[in-house]
Structure prediction request, 276 residues.
Amino acid sequence: MKTIKIGADFSETPVGRFPSDGPFSGERFREEFLKPALNENNKVIVIIDDAEGYGSSFLNEAFGGLVQKRYFTVADLKKKLEIVCVDKNYQIYHDLIWKHINEARPE
Amino acid sequence: MLLSAQISPCLCCQMASPIVSAILDLVRVMGPTFVTVFLGALIIQRYFVSRSNQASFIDLMVRELDGLRDDSLEYWTLHSDSEDGKNREAILAQKIKGAIKCLSADMHYFCDRYCKGDKSKVDELLMEISDACTGGTFESSPKPTDSGRYLLVVNAINRTRSELFKRKI
Prediction:
């Protein structure tokens, strides 16, 4: 099992979709953190409430991109991925992540 | 003789006793009515205070929604060719993200307090707003102007506004 704290391990201010949008983009988080962790572990816990906030573009690219790029299926992610937020104010991002995963279509 | 003097009530008490007993009778008869009226007034007052607080909270959230709509529309129609444009774009992006988080916290508090059964509907509305305001090419560099988002943003925010106004009426 691996735990990723977005704020501590990646950035407190994740921004944008692609690496051209900034150093802490959704694509970079997906490729350098999420995908390797999911490949190497049975369970990955992502703690989201230590970053300042997220745009839907970041969340869509980082999490929905796992399905769009055919790295994992929705069923795989439901088994392996756990999104955790203790702070209730971050519940919206938790719901958005699962919405983007469920609505993603493989390219 | 001494004993009887000690037991018999004084003249003052003998005069007052009919008045006291009349007051006690009145309290006995009217007491339950007074208590009922008092409790009823308390319940009605609490109900109206709660409704008034709810209405004030809704007004606050509607103001937040209006601010978010204005910032989003400015962000999505902004030409960021110049340095000033880029700076303004960065400020607006942070304002929009902050406003969505704040709105989410307020709406969840409102929901916990006044409409526990509708939590899933509130979540849906918030996600729609977030996707409309911060989806697509949000925070991309260079960001193309996307005037087509106007309708998405306005519709998402208006749906939430009307849902809130339903609770106020």
